[in-house]
Amino acid sequence: MGLFGLFGGRKESLITSGLLSGARDCHTHILPDVDDGVRTMEQALEILAYEESAGISEVWCTPHVMEDVPNATEQLLDRFAELRAAYKGPVQLHLAAEYMLDTEFEKRLDEKDLITMWDDLVLVETSANIPPYNLLDIFRNMLSYGYRPLLAHPERYRYMQMKDYADLHDMGVFFQVNLGSLVSYYGETARKKAEVLLEKGWYSAAGSDCHRLVAVRKQFEDEVLTSKVRNDLDKLLRL
To answer: How many structural domains comprise the chain?
Structure first.
């Protein structure tokens, strides 16, 4: 069998696997000085240069919007214009937002004051431990307004089990995996959930959720990907 066969095969990193070549990073916090992500334009440009070197072709800036971080839409549009003016590389930049499902979001939903991905896709999240009491109603309202919910990193929500994911998937909620979850960056529970959801084909997007260069480097360069995860992830990143 050989040494590598005995232990499940040679493992790769996201970088060495080639999976990132031409890939789209749908979740980042690299818009400078608007949330808990990067603080300066220089830091943002450094991360973009790294993603460019990794083969990433498109990056979505998805800053937090929540009660504690009530970024106004116009403010984010202005900041994004500054980033686009400063960045001179080939990576295509886009702006959306990551909305916490709280009262601030419900207000903006009613006002249709949302920065979407591809016209009608809205990146949303909840707290890691406790969902909003009206979670399903919020999703129903989004769908009735013509929006498609894209739930960020569902594998990281400790309160969710496979039945919850199945119910949301059947309801029309899309899922976005954090690449870091697949390399155990968020722990083994998140990794195992992510692998199951990936195998089922329930993810529609992938992202780094990058807040700092050191974190995205670790996620991209740790040699922990199995051949099974690599093959499943390749299908997702080519969508």
So the answer is: 1
